[in-house]
Amino acid sequence: MAYQALYRKWRPRTFDSVVGQEDITNTLKNAIKRGTVSHAFLFAGPRGTGKTSCAKIFAKALNCTNLQDGEPCNQCSNCLAADEGAMADTMEIDAASNNGVDEIREIRDKVKYAPTQGKYKVYIIDEVHMLSMGAFNALLKTLEEPPEHVVFILATTELQKVPATIISRTQRYNFKRISQTALEQRMKYILDQEKIKYQDKAIAVIAQVADGGMRDALSILDQLLSYEKDSIEYDAALEITGFAAKEKVEQILLAILQKDAAAALSLTKAELKNGASSKNILDELIDLATNALITIKADGQSEHNFLSADFVKQIENVPLERYFKVITAANTALNDLRFTNQQQIPLEVFLIETTNEDQAAETTAPAASATVSENVADPVKRPDDLKTEVTALKKQVVELTEQVAQLKKRQLTNSDQIFHLDNEVAATTTTAKKTAEATQTKKRRKKVKNDQAGKQNRKQVYHVLENATKQDLQAIKDVWPDLQSVLGVSQRALLDVLEPVAASQDQVVMKCKYTLWFEKASSDDDLLGILTDQIAKFTQHDYEIVLVPDSDWLTVRKEFLQSHRDEVLKRQKEVKSDEELENSTADQNQEVIKKAQDLFGDAVNIKD
């Protein structure tokens, strides 16, 4: 028989054997026992956390002929067929490769047929977020009201890509990352069953690399077994995973906290030479610094075990701010790794920065404070402050003029002094005039700019209102909730402050609750571009967005109605006359029908 990977060989066959998802498995078991099985489920969570396994177990339990407390018996013909992948009533579909409208239409056509072996037909659609928008729309009605014998189970690793209209039609279960302790226990159980020796430190390294995914953990375990069949060794685990030895990472962190740059660089280069990657070293330093910080705050009562002798004693006097700075700098270096091919450089820069950060802080502090003071001073100088300065300068001019007059009355003979004093007065007067003129010019420019922007914006709003229709506005409002499911966090925040109030065939007016957001959204072309593209995608029509502040909307609408009053009244009269004509025509028809019935009785046959 061909070799079978560990994650396939040891895939859970019952709910109780699923690791780390007890809340979800208990809920599914109770639903089966009580007969309260919904028509559609959505399993969402990180990779390798048991979504597909739970879906297969649930499908097997639904068609099991000998249920054992909500668990499949794994002995009846239906359970055996499901384990072998031969159960005709369980269809597993990969949405990544079957994401078109035609595939979903085929499912929609087949769900009406009754199951052949079991009680339910179960459709498991894996990676459902890969379906196209057309496929999602084709699935909507069937997903909401399928036949009684059909159950849909959708699985996804990216819930944010699934439309809100799909999520609202399902029972959603959020699978969480499996804890490191649970991963280690499961791997040890499997190795004990396979009768393979192992070192606890090696299992801990694998669990850390797996990052909460059981499939990843078993895949690495499989790789180590290929590397060395008889046992799982710590050194082999480090070499395969690219992690640094834990005791070496502790020494690197101690060197950083003790500001010993040479030792930190030397130890790091040695680990890189032994096969550790820059990313893994930074990850381990962040994890170790966090555990050290927790240990210090817990007065040494933490469950974390350090390998280096007297490690806790050596770090207990380090200020807490040092740990925060190290963790922040390490996260920055991790982010920098994504943008460079020389992976060693961000790591070395991080080591030098964290071991010399106090000196760097002292050097940059005066410059930073000066920059902050300048930045704070600039926005504070508003027109009111400039007016105060101009007033003070004028006051100085008056005082100097009075002094000159007094000197002249006393008939001072020192003409040079009077000359210099006159020059000073003239210079001061000129400065005051220039400052006042600059202030006035700045005000006029700002006012002209705001007036021009306001006029341009009002023209656009008037243009939309002249051609606005209820159908276009309703089309925008209908897709507004769907935008929440596809936009990012910052874009969803924009939706909360925007509201469509009028729409024409090619433009839509949106009022903004806050002036600050209106200014930000008006200047951010990328943000408006994303919103415009998503609206066009959902409505299948291009609309240009015209923004207006909430405080100005009522004024603009009132001015428009006043300026177009005659036109609005004319439209109302036309609509009214059409209604009256229609009503009069209907009344005439009724009179004709009545006369015909009076003349001919029941022989009259009325056709519309």
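(ticket continues) Second input and output from the same batch:
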Amino acid sequence: MAKAKKATVKAKRYEQTHFVDTTRSVWNYSLFDEEQVTNFQNGTHYSLYNYFGNKQLEVNDVAGTYFAVWAPNATAVYVIGDFNQWDKTAHPLFVRLDQSGIWEGFIPNIGKGEAYKYHIHGYKGAKLDKGDPFAHYWQKRPQTASVIWDTKYDWNDNKWMKKRDKLNSLKSPHSVYEVHLASWMRPNKHDEESYNSYGFLADRLVNYVKEMGFTHVELMPVMEHPFDGSWGYQGTGFFAPTSRFGEPQDFAYLVDCFHQAGIGVILDWVPSHFPYDAHGLFMFDGTHTYEYADMRKGFHPDWNSYIFNYKRGEVKSFLISSARFWCEQFHADGLRVDAVSSMLRLDYSRNEGEWEPNEFGGNGNLEAIAFIKDLNETLYRDFHSVQTIAEEATDWPGISKPTFAGGLGFGMKWMMGWMHDTLRYFKKDPLHRSHHQDDLTFSMMYYYDENFMLPLSHDEVVHGKSPMIYKMPGDEWQKFANLRLLYTYMFTHPGAKLLFMGDEFGQTNEWNYKSELQWELLQFDPHAGMQQCLKDLNHLYRDNPALHEKQFDASGFEWVDLNHRAEAVICFKRKCGKNKEDVLVLLNMTPVVRTDWEVLVHGKGDWEEIFNSDNKKYWGTGDVFNPGIRSELIDKKSKMYKLVLNLPPLAGIVLK
């Protein structure tokens, strides 16, 4: 908010030294100085939201709204809206004389709540009606106009913000609940046009996430977007929370409530592409303003969308300003950056001949790489306690390494290889798993190359991939036991965790953005038990330092037993530097009960069972557990102990 106040002060100071012709419908007025324009053009102005868009001001003691828009190839730009009956000639903006392509002006006596667009006379006579790229509020689709608004909000999250350095650090637990706000819960689950408000979600969703023990929530894109079926990934409002659920201040209230509940908020952010909707960024002034003009770089074949021109300084300033906007104005604790692979590679989803190598003959988009590095450096400089997380699915090196060490500078990267290997393993009949142990163990061969987040995201439960519960083999009991076992493996494996909504209670339908989660399933014991299991795993992960303090450190993990491939039993230790805090994890991947199972472990001889995924409260058998674990000292010098315990079927147990 401090930035916005400074902009207002700047305006008043400018007004005192520049003559304003008050006889015109639009007054020639500016918030920009020469340095700001230069930084904008050079790609180094990262708070454009304080200058572009609409700003409610007083000029010569007259209240009104200042507008500024970048349209470098326009021959004329007009503000049209309800206030002038959408007259396309009544309110022309002034173009700056510095060749910046910025059009601006002050319109007296209009203010908050007015709908508007820019009517642009563009290249080769094109006539375009465009929404404001910097608007903070848009009409609810299918309407497409921007709305004069601000983001002023009185925050009550000081306690969270003061502790965020610790709570959001890589040494702290990151258990992330991925949410699509519209379909998490609807007022009418059969009506895709019904939406709960940000206020409702601030009550029900915040309380649910807290009760379940998640440390963070990740919101699928809340930035304004015209088409529900894009799930928010085809955005038009890079500085506006969607109006589907309320006003910008209502969204701020939702984030505020999460913070007051001790929950971090990660926003899904999409700087990789944008749609071709007529009111959006595409061909903004009749030319390729925001996107590459060369469609070998500028068109995205996977999503029929357009790729930002990362070489253009103004576009780079626009995108990094957007990222900073969500961190500054809405206190976002992290940004999950979508489709990073497609940004990095010129040949992404393109066949030979459909792309052009870079100047060094490689397939890397050098401009996008430079943009990503600047993005991460800027965010960690200005908001040092946030995290940026890359959705990146290739072997590109150094995604989460610092830029000074040759990396891209992200805080974390989604571990897509772990997800694919894990699901492939668990889909197999347990009788065959003994032949595929490498699917599980391979992850630790490359785990420490990056700071990894283990994702079971929305992408795994759509488009015919089946819900998580039906990926599991066997009868109903085995399906639930297998899924509880998978989650036990996930929450004890090193790395941050991400789980998509509905997975926590074993939803039986694929995710459908038009509906809501199958909350009615919780009346049935298997689903209620699954939910309780996930809740306890969250607390296990949070309450045991060995499971998170060294989650990105090689000294925090040790294989204990990989020599029982035939029985499909594996054992590993998670460590935090204090032996008494270490935990021992045993996973029995078959439905065979293993009694008097022996395992050799260094360190301590006294262990107790603190988690068992076969517990009756999880809809397990409850028949196999370890009220007391026999321990025998084998080698005093090396502190080697033999433990004798029981392993329940298709289950994981955790000892401490």
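Agent notes: Residues 1-17 have pLDDT under 50 and may be disordered. Residues 525-543 form the longest helix (19 residues). Closing as not reproducible unless the customer responds.
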